[in-house]
Amino acid sequence: MSGGGGAVTTTEAVAETAPDDATLVSRSRDGDMRAYEQLVLRYQAQMFRLAVKMLADRSDAEDVVQEVFLGAWRRLPQLNEDAAFVGWLYRMTTNRCLNVIRARKPTVEVDPEATESPRSDIQPEHAVQVSTQLEALNAALQLLTPEQRACWLLREVHGLTYEEIGDIVDVNTTAVRGRIARARAHLSEVMKPWR
Question: Which residue ranges does the record assign to the RNA polymerase sigma factor 70 region 4 type domain (predicted)?
Answer without folding.
Answer: 135-187
